[in-house]
Predict the 3D structure of the following.
Amino acid sequence: YASEMNASVEEKLVLLEGMRSALESCTDSQDCGGAACQFHLLYQPKIDLRSGRLFGVEALIRWNHPEHGLISPLRFIGLAEESGMIVALGEWVVRSACAQGQAWRAAGLPALSISVNVSARQFEEKRLVERVAQALRDTGLPPEALEVEVTESSIMRDLGRSVDKMRELKAMGISLSIDDFGTGYSSLSALKSFPISRLKIDKSFVSDLADSADDQAIAMAVISLGHKLNLRVIAEGVETEQQRAFLSANDCDEMQGYLFSPPVPAERIAAMLAQQPGA
Ligand code: C2E
Ligand code: CA
Ligand code: CA
Ligand code: CA
C-alpha cells in the first residue's frame, strides 16, 4: 500500500514538473500555440436554441505531453489547483483566449463571446481582477466579449469576497456565469446576490434527460429559476436531438455539446462563423 502511495505521489511530482516546464516553454515562446507549446486551447461552440446561431465559445485547455500524449484537464487541473500552479496556468489560458478572441475580431468575423473557466484557487487569488484586466489591455479584446465561468463551490468558499470580486469583474464589463450549476451548494439567497448573467446546467443532468423524470424536473426547475432571476440558461453536454428538443420545448436559451460540435481548434470556429447565414 505504502509503495503504491509513493508511486502516485511520485507520479504527481513528475506530472507537476512536466506542467511547470511545459508552461514555461509556452509562455516563453513567441509563437505560443506553435510546436514548442504543449498546452493549447480548443473552443466549443455555444448555440442559441431559438435561432440556432453560434454566439459564443468556451475555451478548454489541452495538454499534449511529449511522452503521454494528450492528457485530459480532468487529470491535471486538480493537480494545478493543489500546487498553486493554476494561477500561472490560468493566466496563460485567459491571455491566450483573449488573444484568440481579438484575432477573430480583427479578421472581421461576427462578434463572439469567449468564455474561460476560472477554478477556485485562481478565483480566490488576490490579483485575479488585475491579471484579467491586463490580459484585456494587452490583447485589445473588449471586456464585453469575455465571460468568466466559475463554479458554485468556488464562490461559496468565501462568499463575501467572491461577490465583491464578481462585482469588480462585472464593473469592467465582463460577464459571469455559474458553471456546473446544481452540483454545488449555493443557497438561493446567495444566488440572488451574484452579479451573473448566465446559469449553466451541468451535463450530469442532461445526459439522461430523455429517460429520467428527475433530471427533467431538475432541468425545468433550473430554467425557470434562471428566468425568474433574469438570467440566461445554457445546457452543457447536449449530445442528442431528443435532449435538444426537450430543452427547446422547456424554454432553455442556449446549448453546448457534441450534438452541434465538440471542442475544436480556433480555425474551425472561424470557418463555422464564416458559414453562418448572414455572416
Ligand atoms: P466543464 O467546464 O464543465 O467543461 C465541460 C466539459 O464537457 C469539457 O470537458 C467538454 O469537452 C466536455 N463536453 C462538451 N460537450 C460534451 C458532450 O456533449 N458530452 C460530453 N460527455 N462531454 C462534453 P474537458 O474539456 O475535458 O474539460 C473538463 C473540465 O476541466 C471542465 O469541465 C473544466 O472544469 C476543466 N477545465 C477545462 N479547461 C480548463 C481551463 O482552461 N481552466 C480551468 N480552470 N479548468 C478547465
Ligand atoms: Ca465550463
Ligand atoms: Ca466546470
Ligand atoms: Ca460541467
Notes: The radius of gyration is 19 Å. The chain has a mean pLDDT of 93. The longest helix spans residues 2-28. The chain has twelve helices and nine strands.
